[in-house]
Amino acid sequence: MKALTRLIFLAAAALLFSVSTVAVFYSPAASAMQPREFTDSAGTKLLYRIYVPDDVAEGEKLPLLLYLHGAGHRGSDNALHVYFEPGILARVLSSEYKRCILVAPQCPEGARWVDTPWEAGSYSIENVPESKQLCAVYELILSLIETEPADPDRIYITGLSMGGYGTWDLILRHPGLFAAAVPICGAGDPSKSERISDLPVWFFHGSADEVVPVSGSRDMAIALENIGGKVYTYTEYPGVGHSSWEDAYFEPELLDWLFSQSKSGSSDLSTSSEGAGIKWQYLAAFALLAAGAGAITTLSAAQRKSQK
User: Fold this and answer.
1) Which residues contact 243 (CB under 8 A, 6 or more apart)?
2) Rounded to the nearest 10 degrees, what angle do helices 132-147 and 162-173 cross at?
3) Shortest CA distance to 171 belongs to which of 154, 193, 151, 144?
4) Strands 62-68 and 232-237
5) Is 296 among the domain residues?
6) Which CATH number belongs to the domain containing residue 108 in this structure?
7) CA-CA 20 to 30 A from 62: which of 74, 117, 256, 294?
8) Which residues of 129-153 are buried (b: 16+ CB within 10 A; e: fewer)?
């Protein structure tokens, strides 16, 4: 099913954006997202790309999706991170949810979204101050809510690897800003999980990840389960290495789930899926607690729905 989703997405994206023979190797999102620069209150400069539909009606409010890239796309060109994004931005733009705002900041070379060793997994936000880059990202989103037609009830965040760390970090430090989050192969601070007990989070990791230990996601799953979290999902891909985003970003139900979330508890976006708009409550951590961390497996859509 995910393979079919990829094929449909690639065909639709190529047709929609009239990609040239050379540019077909790049994400179609690159040509749709405009380069901008933001400077926060501390003087930190942040390069970013943004997509806003051209025909926004007066008073219309759109969901905003923030994407945090991985370490390999750091730089100062404001291009690499969108030209070679893993497909989530282009997938959104070729979907029924394309009427939204997309934001993709670029982390400078040598910096990190979170100043902690990736190979260490979980960390304490009390011992690791918020990075200058994430402070700037946070202020950027607050600014865009004021200057763009962004719906403050539908601010979403996703990121992979270094960006997975950044996603966990931002939602743990600023949980009130977001309506949903999709961290992939990252890690956070399990001791602060109560801050996001009511925040819908669908997170992913490969069991064979040799770059960011799978314990980072497992720790968060166990912590959320221990506090009675009921609106999160943890999907672990058995045998998959660091590039678990290749599976995660093409989960067939991901966009329906993400764009149905709202801090107000309802959304203007409707879907045809029978599960749309519901805060899913299937708890993957049960497998972790009952059979040990090594026993967790990916849950199919049918299995997930059966656990609502």
Assistant:
1) 206
2) 70
3) 193
4) unpaired
5) yes
6) 3.40.50.1820
7) 74
8) ebbbbbbbbbbbbeebbeeebbbbb
- Note whether residue 13 is domain-resident: no
pLDDT level of residue 110 (50, 70, 90 thresholds): very high
CA 182, 187, 192: angle at the middle one, nearest 5? Answer: 90
Spatial distance between the Cα atoms of 184 and 86, rounded to a whole number of angstroms: 12
Query: Does residue 16 fall inside a structural domain?
Result: no
Pairwise CA distance, residues 232 & 223, whole Å: 11
Find the Cα–Cα–Cα–Cα dihedral 23, 29, 32, 35, rounded to 10°. -100
Residue 243 backbone phi and psi in degrees, to 5: -85, 45
- Domains of the chain: total: 1
Do the Cβ atoms of 174 and 138 come closer than 8 Å?
yes
- β-pairing, 150-160 vs 34-39, is unpaired
Q: pLDDT, tens digit, for every residue of 80-96?
A: 999 999 999 999 999 99
Closest CA to 263 of 137, 171, 158: 171
Condensed to tens digits (0 to 9), the pLDDT of residues 241-266 reads 999 999 999 999 999 999 999 998 74
